[in-house]
Design brief:
219 residues, alpha+beta, 60s Ribosomal Protein L30, Chain: A, five-stranded mixed β-sheet, 5 helices
Length: 219
Amino acid sequence: MLHRGFRRPSLFHRGEDNEQNWLITLSDFLTLLLVFFIFFYMMSRGGGKDKLFQQEQRPASQGILENNSYNRVSILSEDLNNLLKRSHIDANASVLTVNNEVVVTLKEKILFKPADAALLTDSYSALGAIAEIIRQNDDLKVEIEGHTDNVPINNRFYPSNWELSMARAISVLRYFTEYEGIEASRFSVKGNADNRPIQGNTTESQRASNRRVEIRLKT
């Protein structure tokens, strides 16, 4: 028997309560799922303040190394220019910086006779100035490249411009290793023949510019 004033809950109200309880449970589940995915993402990235700190610091450290390398290349380039001027051969030589390299270009006329790979004694002052820089910077690696113009050569010593360009590079190498006493393991040589001209090969002036030896100082 029911007391007066008491009302039995209707089925409608019970349905509303069940629906609200279900929504609360789903909301909790989605929240937990979101937390799980955030945690999983942080773990996959390495997580932690130390890892984040290292990632933030890496670009700064790399920038410092790049700046130091750039400053060193600039100093090497300036020193070489001064030494070549003192040797009075700067009109037939040039110094350029390319990325982390200093490239010294010596024209044929101060190094060799035409179609020959024997060094002229007049070249010793220029090569000696470069050797001084190489010796003072014992961590530098040096690449010597021989270049010719596009006029074919065919004699009993050099069947083509490939052999001539390589022989000239080797002559410069031997000066550094045998005359200056610099360790041979620091050097590499390359003959490019006429495949890397710096000018056209139409006029004699252009061909003369292409006949050269490049000495690349790699930091």
